[in-house]
Design goal:
heterotrimer, A mainly alpha (219), B mainly alpha (245), C alpha/beta (323), A: 219 residues, mainly alpha, C: 323 residues, alpha/beta, 4-stranded antiparallel β-sheet, 38% helix
Chain lengths: 219, 245, 323
């Protein structure tokens, strides 16, 4: 137990924790910045939307360790490789959910919005995005949690972060070090999950929450 | 090669990836090695991986279907099941392996890997079993009861067959997750394609880890497509009614 | 005034027109009902007025001006729009839904708020109770009222309504129709109203445009004239073999010349508010030859009697005059 606390107090621990959080925030943010505009672009065409969803599904199937090691020959060891790989991993869930979310707004709602004279941009920003917000945030949450987990593997391509301790623990067969890494990552993952679930709720318009509740009650 | 600047590296990578039949000594992929060692090293790793993943999925299905049936019937159980399995699902796999080995005290090898893979599959599978059963229209169940089927017969002859496509959709998500995580399992001695990756990294031999990564990707995408197929085959009524309109 | 001038619509990749050389004029303050079987292009015709669909040929004039003289979104903000599935925005309150167009065209807050309250009152939803609710908290009928209020919000002179009362049960529909007709007496909008239901068309329309498959105008006239004088087999079969009875439902007892009421104590009592069709049903139902007409509410003195023969004579007379 002393060893365990000892690891947490090592000066490099806080650095690696910050690095892990950096991966989380940067990769998720880059994922959003790339996936959302693409989703908006494909939104107008059935064909492009289906294509984007299929690409997303294939992307989601690629094992995270495979993405990381395939970046390695391209960008070499280190932070850049890891961040690039983690961003690639963050894109599919956000993109799939954003495409599906924007498209599931019912055609009648879109028709009456258009019929009342909302412009294309107004329909997107005032109608589609707020209605799709909960689904888009669910995608972001999935991505964020996945980035926390995958950032643990950055250690294998010299990307550092909390995975370093797990590997060190195995190599030295040291329980305290391995658990310090494993548990801190687990806690970070849970905090991310809970935090983003909170965001999701905060961004669900009240009218939709009521509609969801009614829908469930009717079942 | 880690000192190469990105553009040259990409070029080298592409050259190596798309090299034709002619042998190349330079480049990322040592095709000669690959040809010579394919049967001894690569194929067994692939089969180990498939075995590991499908056995885990099978165990997870055997656990999830009864739990899902119970949760569909006794509703109070459902939030508890999703909370617990959702917790497992959130724990990063590398952490999970570590806890199973260092805290629970399992020895390194296949066992902790299979346990972790099963735990990861439960959330999706149970959720889809319940959703699938929920999607059976009450009129259908009522008609079955009206024709004199017992609850047990209704479950096996009406509800489960109708829920099957949704359950298979859950298996599809589960198998893709499991294939990805099993790659990491090689680090704790579970074998499979991850072995090629970790060996390749240790020996600084790109051929090995690229082969591992590419095969793992193809296996995941292939399984995904396989289950999409299965899902369609199992719901012929959906196809027909779509064709009719 | 809305003028359709040789309007046709053919979709790209199809050689069959969905709307075919449509020419007719809708006068200000009138409800014009577009009615016909599915595939007759009635919704397409309506949607060309506010340019949700652009015609391939011809033009539509609004008060003498081409509807292409301004941008589509500008045009739509000046035309009320209500559809069957209502299309309320689920993430916005009732007040915010109704305020959509006023907000778009930049009304100030106070004016918008008081307009919203006024409209909710008008459609029978007390504003204090409904203003801050969400669509999911309302019944289907209430949602349709909000849909109508939303279409009326910026006081547009023209309204387009596509089966606006289609998604509710028949009793609620009847009530909503009556309420809307009452509202229309005050607001006098020019309304293009689409329905597939000939009874609704007869009830709601000042004019009815009957369209047949391929978007061809089969007849355009008042309900009375269409029922009395269908110009083709298609129209007479579309309005139904009970068109004589339907015509009776256009005339109310109070509009008839009555015979004096002497000693009619054992006759069935008929409110003067009933339509002739309902009155006929009452008389036959009571096994009588005539009924005693009393003012609505059943309280006042009898105003006279109405006989089956008088009703028969009326329908015969119209038949002959039109035949």
């Amino acid at each position: 137990m002393d060893d365990f606390m000892g690891v947490l107090q090592r000066p490099d621990f806080i650095d690696n924790l910050i690095l892990h959080i950096e991966y989380l925030l940067l990769a998720t943010l880059l994922g959003i910045v790339i996936a959302i505009p693409v989703s908006v672009l494909v939104n107008r065409s059935d064909w492009a939307s289906t294509f984007a969803i299929n690409v997303g599904n294939v992307g989601r199937a690629v094992p995270s360790l495979a993405v990381l090691v395939l970046m390695f020959p391209v960008f070499g060891l280190g932070f850049d490789s890891a961040l690039f790989a983690l961003t690639l991993l963050a894109i599919p869930p956000i993109m799939i959910n954003a495409v599906v979310g924007l498209r599931q707004v019912s055609p009648q709602i879109l028709d009456s919005a258009k019929g009342m004279g909302l412009s294309g941009g107004q329909i997107l920003s005032r109608i589609q995005v707020p209605i799709a917000a909960p689904i888009i945030f669910a995608g972001i949450r999935t991505s964020a949690v996945q980035v926390v987990a995958s950032a643990t593997l950055a250690t294998f391509i010299g990307g550092g972060a909390l995975g370093d301790y797990i590997v060190e623990g195995y190599q030295r067969n040291n329980t305290a070090i391995a658990l310090a890494g494993a548990l801190s990552v687990a806690v970070l993952a849970i905090i991310t999950e809970v935090g983003f679930a909170g965001l999701e709720r905060a961004f669900t318009p009240k009218g939709l929450r009521i509609a969801q509740k009614r829908g469930r009650a009717r079942k | 090669m880690d000192s190469q600047d990105p553009p040259t590296a990409i070029l080298a990578f592409l050259q190596a990836e798309f090299a034709t039949g002619e042998q190349k000594k330079v480049g990322l992929i040592d095709w000669e090695w690959l040809r010579d060692n394919f049967m001894e090293d690569v194929v067994p790793a692939l089969f180990q991986h498939i075995y590991l993943c499908f056995i885990s999925l099978a165990i997870a299905v055997v656990i999830s279907v009864p739990l899902g049936i119970l949760a569909a019937r006794y509703r109070w159980l459902y939030p508890w099941l999703t909370a617990i399995t959702g917790f497992f699902y959130t724990i990063p796999s590398f952490s999970m392996f570590t806890v199973l080995i260092f805290v629970i005290g399992l020895s390194v090898g296949r066992t902790p890997a299979i346990i972790a893979l099963v735990l990861y599959s439960l959330l999706v599978l149970i959720r889809n079993v319940v959703t699938g059963l929920d999607s059976v229209p009450p009129e259908t169940k009522d008609a079955a009861r009206g024709m004199g089927l017992t609850d047990r017969q209704i479950l096996f002859r009406v509800e489960l067959p109708l829920a099957l496509p949704v359950i298979v959709a859950g298996m599809r998500i589960a198998i893709v997750t499991v294939i990805g995580i099993a790659v990491i399992g090689a680090y704790i001695g579970a074998g499979g394609l991850g072995d090629l990756i970790f060996d390749g990294i240790t020996r600084d031999f790109p051929t090995l880890y690229i082969t591992g990564a590419v095969l793992a990707t193809l296996l995941a995408i292939g399984s995904d497509l396989l289950f999409v197929r299965a899902e369609r085959m199992l719901s012929p009524w959906a196809r027909r009614s779509r064709g009719a309109t | 005034m809305i003028e359709f001038k040789n309007v046709s619509k053919t979709y790209a990749g199809s050689d069959r027109a969905v709307v075919n050389d449509l020419t007719f004029t809708i006068q200000n303050g009138e409800i014009c009902v577009l009615v016909g079987p599915s595939g007759c292009g009635k919704t397409t015709s309506m949607r060309m007025v506010n340019r949700l669909i652009e015609p391939t040929q011809g033009e539509i004039l609004i008060d003498g001006q081409k509807n292409t003289s301004m941008s589509g979104t500008q045009l739509r903000r000046k035309i009320g729009y209500a559809i069957q599935q209502i299309g309320l925005f689920p993430h916005r309150t009732i007040a915010s839904n109704v305020a959509t167009v006023p907000n778009l065209v930049g009304w100030d807050k106070e004016r918008t708020a008081s307009r919203v309250d006024e409209l909710l009152d008008l459609v029978g939803l007390p504003p204090d109770q409904y203003r801050d609710r969400y669509p999911a908290e309302l019944s289907g009928g209430q949602q349709q009222r909000v849909g109508v209020a939303r279409a009326l919000a910026a006081d547009p002179p023209i309204m387009l309504m596509d089966e606006p009362f289609g998604a509710v049960d028949p009793i609620t529909r009847d009530r909503l129709q009556n309420e809307f007709l009452n509202i229309q007496q005050d607001i006098k909008k020019t309304i293009v109203f689409v329905t597939h239901d000939i009874d609704e068309a007869i009830k709601m329309g000042d004019k009815i445009a009957i369209l047949k498959e391929g978007g061809i105008l089969a007849q355009y006239d008042t309900p009375e004239n269409i029922l009395a004088n269908p110009t083709s087999d298609f129209v007479s079969s579309f309005v139904g073999t009970d068109r004589v009875l339907k015509r009776l439902s256009l005339v109310r007892v109070r509009d008839m010349d009555l015979e004096p009421a002497n000693g009619g104590d054992n006759l069935p009592r008929i409110s003067d508010k009933l339509t002739l069709k309902d009155a006929l049903s009452e008389i036959i139902g009571a096994g009588a030859e005539r009924g005693l007409v009393v003012p609505d509410g059943n309280g006042g003195n009898p105003r006279g009697t109405l006989s089956i023969d008088a009703i028969k004579a009326l329908s015969h007379e119209a038949e002959v005059s039109s035949g």
